[in-house]
Amino acid sequence: MSEPGPDPSPVTDPATQRARSFGSVADVYERARPGYPDEALDWLLPPGARRVLDLGAGTGKLTRSLLTRGLDVVAVEPSAGMRAQFARVLPGVEVLDGTGESVPLPDGSVDAVLMAQAWHWVDPDTASPEVARVLRPGGRLGLLWNVRDAGVDWIAHLDRLLPGPGEEQLGSLAPRVGPPFGPVERYDVRWSDPVTVESLLDLTRSRSWVIALDDGRREEVLADVRAQALARLEATGSLTLEYVTRCSRATLPA
Predict the structure, then answer these.
(1) How far is the C-alpha of 247 from the C-alpha of 201, rounded, in Å?
(2) Are 34 and 59 within 8 A, CB to CB?
(3) Where in the sequence is the domain holding 98, given as residue range(s)?
(4) Angle at 84 between CA 167 and CA 226, to 5 degrees
(5) Is 156 part of any domain?
(6) What is the bridge-based pairing of β-strands 185-194 and 240-251?
(7) 168: Cα within 13 Å, side-chain hemisphere
(8) Around Cβ 106, how many Cβ atoms within 10 Å?
């Protein structure tokens, strides 16, 4: 397989630049980002769903969880670098070039569309009817974000060391979903993920605002995170990130 070139269409809008930045660290993203708890998928997926679209699939973190349920999964991802990594870890699983505003699937072709860590990157006024187009009547849009639980003291301190935009926070408490979908429902799942110092550093490197930093500032941030992690490890003997998976779902009228 040839190496992917840079993601196309250079842009100057900062939010769009951040959204397109992940391809450059796709291998780090794959190593560091956690998966998603079963309880979240139990709540998000509609009963009887068979064919599911993982929209903004990244390296396939969510796709893997869907496949273990025996679902027929198609993935859509705009970043060439992320699609290449997806193909390496999930060979044989269909992954297409597309966005939330332009989904390369036929009308009424899936039972559910799930989007993890990504709805905040789309224009909901355009993406909502486009997602509705590919859903069957009565189909469901499910959105989820893994967010560090700042109610835990050491994680709150860690978050203060990382004064970036916190893109996973943006819109995850009350994501805006437009017509023709019905009301948006919300549900939280709390869970824990054991980490190492190095995996925590990789997790930091995979954040869009860290990717955008100049080399000097990035090294300062990583040094701060390393010091905080080592202090926690010395005090407790282990490192665990506490997460809240924020889930939202909206159903298309039948």
Answers:
(1) 26
(2) no
(3) 14-251
(4) 45
(5) yes
(6) antiparallel
(7) 20
(8) 9
Residue 138's CATH number: 3.40.50.150
Which tokens go with 128? Answer: 């909502």
Q: At a CB cut-off of 8 Å and minimum separation 6, what does 59 contact?
A: 26, 29, 30, 33, 82, 85, 86, 89
Cα distance between residue 87 and residue 93, in whole Å: 7
Query: Does residue 9 carry a pLDDT above 60?
Result: no
pLDDT of residue 29: 64
Angle 215-236/197-205 helices, nearest 10 degrees?
A: 150
The more confident residue out of 14 and 54 is 54
How many domains are contained in the chain?
A: 1
Beta carbons within 8 Å of 204's beta carbon, 6+ residues apart: 162, 210, 221, 222, 225
Residue 75 has pLDDT above 90, yes or no: yes
CB 97 within 8 A of CB 78: yes
Is residue 242 left, alpha or beta, with left meaning phi > 0 and alpha meaning psi from -120 to 50? beta
What amino acid is encoded at 23 in this protein? Answer: G
Q: Hey, which residues does 193 pair with through a beta bridge?
A: 241
Looking only at the bridges linking them, the beta strands covering 240-251 and 95-96 are: unpaired
Contact 117, 168 (CB under 8 A): yes
